[in-house]
Design brief:
The protein is of the alpha+beta class and about 130 residues long. The protein has one domain. It is built from two helices and six strands; from the N terminus they run H-E-E-H-E-E-E-E. A hairpin with a 4-residue loop joins strand 5 and strand 6. The radius of gyration is 14 Å and the shape is globular. The two termini are about 15 Å apart.
């Protein structure tokens, strides 16, 4: 949708953007029944666990060593933002933050992938 900002998507996803976040990108896709929201940014790797703690995931994130090879396509792909899909990457920590969530948000998932020795990209995907 036009006029979408990183801040507006973060607010809808009920996420507090860290002050150390860089390369932030977001999108909002209007759907027939549900809307898809994606948000991604880069953090110093040593700040990732602190960010994940504020999300309060339902369970500890799992580490997926290999890229996920599935047949389905995501309805709101991160490729819209010029980013690789988290499913296509190896060594990704991922999990459900909430499903259902409080308020109008139906579900929120997080994935974290290393960018280099010092930074990691956080991927957030929500359904509203």
């Amino acid at each position: 949708m036009d006029g979408v900002t990183v801040e507006s998507v973060a607010r809808t996803l009920q996420v507090q953007m860290p002050s150390t976040a860089t390369e932030a990108k977001a999108a909002y896709q209007k759907g027939f029944q549900d809307d898809g929201l994606i948000l991604s940014f880069v953090l110093p790797t040593d700040a990732v666990d602190g960010f994940l703690t504020q999300l309060k995931p339902e369970r500890p994130l799992r580490l997926r060593e290999q890229p996920f090879v599935g047949e389905g396509k995501t309805t709101t792909p991160f490729s819209h933002l010029g980013l690789p899909e988290p499913d296509s990457l190896a060594g990704v920590r991922e999990g459900v933050v909430c499903a259902p969530c409080k308020g109008d948000l139906n579900a929120l998932e997080v994935s974290v992938a290393r960018v280099d020795d010092d930074s990691s990209r956080v991927y957030l995907s929500g359904v509203d």
